[in-house]
């Protein structure tokens, strides 16, 4: 997958509404100073921002379900990338980190299914979950493996 091209494709879709502030503003605070990991995290942020924008604007450029699935699929690719590295270096917090990744996939799935089944208040919960999980996951859990990554 061409991460840069995909990020640009999402940006063009987001730019259809130039007056809208992004739901999650990517900035240096999210950077782990590792190019590949940062590019993955940025793409995840872009998927979340596009999903948020489409739901809020009731945009029909793409189906909301397809954006949600693309977000989930890429999250799985990213998690596998991190986990492969953990196994390679015998990272000490592998087990708990893998649990975090699994939880993300099952919980967003559950919230999105409830939303699609007509439970409108679930969307707010989904946004909060996506935002809080991402912040905490990148800044706490992913940051923790940086040392191991740099010593590879
Ligand atoms: Fe992670
Ligand atoms: Fe990550």
Task: Describe, in plain words, how this protein is organized in 3D.
This protein has helices at residues 3-14, 35-56, 64-89, 94-116, 122-144, 146-150. The chain has one domain: Four Helix Bundle (Hemerythrin (Met), subunit A). Helix 1 runs parallel beside helix 2 (35-56), helix 3 (64-89) runs antiparallel to helix 4 and helix 4 (94-116) runs antiparallel to helix 5 (122-144). It contains six helices and no strands. 18% of the residues are buried. It is 73% helix and 0% strand. It is an all-alpha fold and 152 residues long. The structure holds fe (ii) ion (2 copies).
The main β sheet shows up as: none
Strand content: under 5%
Bound molecules: fe (ii) ion
Number of strands: 0
List the helices and strands and how they pair.
Blueprint: H1 3-14, H2 35-56, H3 64-89, H4 94-116, H5 122-144, H6 146-150
Helix pairs in contact: 1-2, 2-3, 2-5, 3-4, 4-5
Bound molecules: fe (ii) ion (2 copies).
The site of one fe (ii) ion has 5 residues, from helix 3 and helix 5.
What key attributes describe this structure?
single chain; binds fe (ii) ion; 73% helix; 152 residues; mainly alpha; Four Helix Bundle (Hemerythrin (Met), subunit A); 6 helices
Short structural description:
This protein has 6 helices and no strands. With 152 residues, it is mostly helical. Helix 2 runs antiparallel to helix 3.
């Amino acid at each position: 997958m061409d991460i840069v091209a995909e990020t640009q494709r999402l940006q063009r879709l987001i730019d259809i509404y130039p007056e809208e502030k992004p739901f999650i503003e990517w900035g240096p605070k999210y950077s782990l100073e590792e190019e590949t990991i940062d590019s993955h995290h940025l793409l995840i942020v872009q998927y979340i921002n596009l999903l948020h924008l489409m739901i809020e604007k009731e945009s029909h450029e793409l189906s909301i379900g397809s954006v949600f699935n693309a977000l989930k699929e890429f999250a799985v690719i990213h998690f596998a990338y991190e986990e492969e590295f953990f196994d390679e270096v015998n990272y000490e917090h592998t087990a708990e980190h893998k649990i975090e990744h699994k939880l993300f996939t099952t919980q967003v799935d559950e919230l999105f299914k409830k939303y699609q089944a007509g439970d409108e208040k679930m969307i707010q919960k989904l946004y909060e979950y996506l935002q809080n999980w991402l912040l905490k996951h990148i800044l706490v859990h992913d940051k923790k493996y940086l040392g191991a990554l740099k010593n590879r």
